[in-house]
Design brief:
The chain contains 6 helices and 2 strands, in the order αααααββα. It is mainly α. The chain has one domain: dinb family like domain (Four Helix Bundle (Hemerythrin (Met), subunit A), Up-down Bundle). A two-stranded antiparallel sheet has the order 1-2. Strand 1 and strand 2 form a beta hairpin. Helix 3 runs parallel beside helix 5. The longest helix is centred in the C-terminal third of the chain and has 26 residues. The N and C termini lie far apart (43 Å).
């Protein structure tokens, strides 16, 4: 664990808390209202975020069990991360990868809060036990961009969250 990891995690946690507060003002109908037939509701977006976050943590835990097999992160990892960041901050539409695209039709704030708290706790525990000697390893393999290190992975989770934060805010503005 490094100060860089802690700061990135705290930023992610703060942004998740803010988004959770935002969606908590919605009633069940608003949370699960698909304004357009081919678009997700706020609840479905939150469930997608939980799936993505949860699968990322599972992957990290799997990889850390065999650290000798994790490749070193280099310049290409930085380029890969910048590619993800660019896509998430652009109007480019990317389909959700298989596994995180099958979201439930209906959810509740309680389910979402449980998922957020569980995932944040799991990531914090992972970061706290992450060996410093693995900092230069590309521990996560993003479905589109490939291998990135832990710091870039935490940043990706935050960038992904903020991408969907913008979508949720647009939906909420149309609900009122």
């Amino acid at each position: 664990m490094t100060q860089q990891h802690i700061e990135a995690f705290n930023k992610l946690k703060n942004n998740y808390t803010n988004l959770l507060e935002l969606v908590s003002i919605l009633n069940v109908n608003q949370l699960n209202n698909n304004l357009e037939a081919d678009k997700w509701s706020c609840g479905q977006i939150m469930e997608h975020l939980q799936m993505s976050f949860g699968f990322t943590i599972l992957y990290l835990n799997k990889k850390i069990s065999q650290p000798e097999l994790i490749p070193v992160a280099g310049f290409k990892s930085t380029l890969r991360y910048l590619l993800i960041k660019f896509v998430l901050n652009s109007p480019i539409k990317v389909k959700a990868p298989k596994g995180v695209d099958n979201v439930p039709e209906v959810t509740t704030i309680e389910q979402i809060k449980q998922g957020v708290n569980k995932n944040l706790q799991a990531l914090e525990e992972f970061i706290n036990r992450y060996p410093v000697e693995l900092n230069q390893k590309a521990i996560f393999k993003h479905p589109l961009a490939g291998r990135i290190n832990l710091y870039q992975t935490i940043q990706f989770l935050n960038d992904h969250l903020m991408h969907h934060d913008r979508q949720i805010r647009q939906i909420i503005s149309k609900l009122h």
